[in-house]
Design a protein that fits this description.
With about 500 residues, the chain is of the alpha/beta class. Helices cover about 40% and strands about 20% of the residues. It has three domains: about 200 residues; about 50 residues, no CATH class; about 220 residues, Nucleotidyltransferase, domain 5 (2-Layer Sandwich), CATH 3.30.420. Strands 1, 2, 3, 4, 5, 6 and 7 form a seven-stranded mixed sheet that branches. Strands 13-12-11-14-15 form a five-stranded mixed sheet, sandwiched between helices. A two-stranded antiparallel sheet has the order 8-9. Strand 12 and strand 13 form a beta hairpin.
Length: about 500
C-alpha cells in the first residue's frame, strides 16, 4: 500500500511493517528469513510524474506536505500543523510502522486515502487500511472516513495529463462504505505484533510443503532436497500436482514417472519420452510439417524491449501501458545473416516503427518467441497508433510466427531444458558459445534498468556503455531465434 515510491527497504530492524504481517500470516519461515535478508527492490513501474502532485490535482489540493523515511509520530504530527493534507505520513504504534499514502487530518479526526497504481483493488489493500486505522487510533487520531484512489482503465492520454480523468475515487465496496468494510475485518494489532516480537528462529519451520502458489526467494533454503540437480529429474515435470509425491516415494527420474499420477498432457509425455530416448524427444513428421508451413524466405527474427508505465507519459497510452524502446532484427536470406537494431529514448515509438519497417523485408516469415503475447500485441498497438503504417504493420502480423509453438505444444523436448520453456534456456542449450550469462545485461528486467539509466544519464562515456549493453542483450535475443530455428531443422533431418 503506497509502495510505489519505495526502491530500498530502509525500515528499522526493531520495527515491523504491514508487509511483515502479510509474510507472518502466510509463512512464519518466510517472515523470519526475510527479516534477516532485507534486499533492495527493483522499481517495476516507470513513474515519470509525481504521483502526489497528480493526486493533489485530482482532489484540488493546493497546499500539502509530504513525509520522508524514518520520521516519527511527532515529525508527522508537526507536518500536519503546516497543512491538514499529508502524503506519505509515517506513524507508529505497538512497534508497527505504517506509511499512509494520503490523509486529511484536523482536530484529531482524519480521512484516509489509499493510492493504487492499479485499476483494481486487492483484498490486501483493505487489510492494510485496517492496521492503519488501528495505529492511528492508538496515537489519538480518529479515522472518520476512507477512500481508495485508483487508476482509470479507460483513460487515454491526449496532450497533457488530465488528472481528473486519470484517477477514480471509490468510497464504497459492494454495499458498504470503505470504512464499514474495513472495520468488519479482524485485526488485533497488539496481539499480532506481540507474536512477531516474541517469535524465535526455532519456530521458523515450514510444514513440509510450501502452500504458496508461487515460490518465494527462500524456497531452495526450505526445500534443499528439491533443488533440481539433474536434467531429467522428476521435479522438472511441468503442470504436475503429484511430482513431489512421486519424489517422496523415491521416483527420481522422468522416465520412471507413475502413469497413474500424470495429468496426461502432451508436454508431460514429451518430457518422459525424452528421458527414455536418451535426452531428446521430437515428433519429426509434425515438426517438419510445422517448418514447411511457416518457413518462407527471407526469414526475419524480431525481438522487442519495453518499459511499463502506470501513468501514461505519451499520447495514445492508457494506464499500465508499455512503450517499446528497442528492437533487434536478424534477417537470413539463406546465404547471409544481417542484423539491424534500434534503441530510442523518450517517445521514440514513431522513429522505432519507421526504422523497423525500413529494415524488415516485406516478404517471408517473421519469427518471435511467445509472439502472441508480446510482439504481435505491440505491433497491433503500433498499427492503431499510426494509421498511415497500419497496412504494413498488419501485414507483418499476418507473417508473424511464434517460435515457442513446437516447444509448448509438446512436439519437441530436450531434458536439458529442465522443465523451462524460455528462449534463454533453449538458446543456451542449442548454442553453448553464446550465453546470456556472459553479458552485463542478462534479462529483460536488467535491460529496463539500463534503459532508465541511459535516459537519466548525461555522461557520454556512460551513455555509450549503456547503449552497447542494450545492443548486445537484445541482439542476442533475435540471434537466438535464428539459432533455435536452425536447431529445429537439424534435429528433424534423417541421419
Amino acid at each position: 500500500m503506497g509502495d510505489f515510491y519505495i526502491i530500498m527497504d530502509t525500515r528499522l530492524k526493531s520495527k515491523f511493517h504491514i508487509t511483515d504481517i502479510r509474510k507472518y500470516n502466510r509463512c512464519h519461515r518466510l517472515f523470519s528469513l526475510s527479516r534477516k535478508n532485507e534486499t533492495s527492490r527493483f522499481a517495476y513501474y516507470n513513474i515519470t510524474e509525481d504521483v502526489c502532485a497528480s493526486v493533489a490535482a485530482r482532489l484540488g489540493i493546493e497546499n500539502y506536505v509530504t513525509g520522508t523515511t524514518n520520521q516519527t509520530n511527532e515529525d508527522s504530527l508537526a507536518l500536519l500543523k503546516q497543512s491538514p493534507w499529508l502524503f506519505r505520513g509515517r506513524f507508529e504504534a505497538c512497534d508497527l510502522r505504517i506509511k499512509v499514502p494520503l490523509m486529511y487530518c484536523a482536530d484529531g479526526h482524519a480521512m484516509l486515502y489509499s493510492i493504487l497504481l492499479s485499476p483494481f483493488v486487492s483484498t490486501e489493500e483493505f487489510s492494510a487500511l485496517r492496521y492503519e486505522f488501528e495505529v492511528l487510533a492508538k496515537i489519538g487520531i480518529a479515522v472518520d472516513d476512507m477512500f481508495i484512489i485508483h487508476l482509470n482503465p479507460d483513460y487515454v492520454r491526449r496532450g497533457r495529463t488530465d488528472h481528473q480523468k486519470l484517477w477514480k475515487i471509490a468510497d464504497h465496496y459492494r454495499e458498504n462504505t470503505i470504512l464499514e468494510h474495513v472495520l468488519s475485518l479482524d485485526a488485533d494489532l497488539e496481539e499480532i505484533t506481540r507474536q512477531m516480537r516474541d517469535f524465535t528462529d526455532e519456530e521458523a519451520v515450514h510444514g513440509g510443503k510450501c502452500s504458496g502458489r508461487s515460490r518465494c526467494q527462500f524456497y531452495e533454503t526450505c526445500f534443499p532436497d528439491e533443488v533440481i540437480t539433474e536434467d531429467n529429474s522428476i521435479l522438472t515435470l511441468v503442470s504436475s500436482q503429484y511430482k513431489r509425491d512421486m519424489w517422496a516415494d523415491g521416483i527420481r527420474y522422468l522416465k520412471d514417472a507413475d502413469s497413474s499420477r500424470l495429468e496426461g498432457s502432451r508436454v508431460q509425455y514429451a518430457q518422459i519420452m525424452a528421458d527414455r530416448n536418451g535426452g531428446l524427444y521430437c515428433e519429426k513428421a509434425l515438426v517438419r510439417q510445422w517448418l514447411s508451413k511457416n518457413v518462407h524466405f527471407p526469414l526475419s527474427f524480431l525481438d522487442f524491449e519495453w518499459d511499463l508505465y502506470p501513468i501514461p507519459p505519451f499520447d495514445g497510452m492508457k494506464p499500465l501501458d508499455v512503450s517499446v524502446f528497442q528492437y533487434s532484427l536478424h534477417v537470413w536470406d539463406g546465404n547471409e545473416l544481417k542484423h539491424y537494431q534500434y534503441v530510442g529514448e523518450g517517445d521514440c515509438r514513431r522513429t522505432l516503427v519507421e526504422s523497423m519497417l525500413k529494415n524488415l523485408p516485406e516478404e517471408g516469415s517473421v519469427f518471435a518467441y511467445n509472439a502472441k503475447g508480446a510482439e504481435k500485441i505491440r505491433i497491433s498497438e503500433f498499427a492503431a497508433l499510426y494509421p498511415e503504417y497500419a497496412e504494413r504493420l498488419n501485414a507483418v502480423n499476418e507473417r508473424l510466427v511464434d517460435l515457442a509453438d513446437p516447444f509448448i505444444s509438446g512436439l519437441v523436448y530436450d531434458t536439458r531444458m529442465r522443465g523451462s520453456f524460455t528462449l534463454k534456456v533453449i538458446e543456451e542449450m542449442v548454442d553453448s558459445h553464446h550465453s546470456y550469462h556472459d553479458l552485463d545485461v542478462s534479462n529483460g528486467i536488467e535491460a529496463v534498468e539500463i534503459h532508465r539509466l541511459l535516459e537519466a544519464c548525461d555522461d557520454l562515456k556512460d551513455r555509450e556503455t549503456y547503449f552497447e549493453q542494450l545492443y548486445k542483450y537484445c541482439g542476442l535475443d533475435s540471434y537466438s531465434l535464428y539459432k533455435v530455428l536452425s536447431w529445429l531443422s537439424e534435429i528433424t533431418e534423417d541421419k
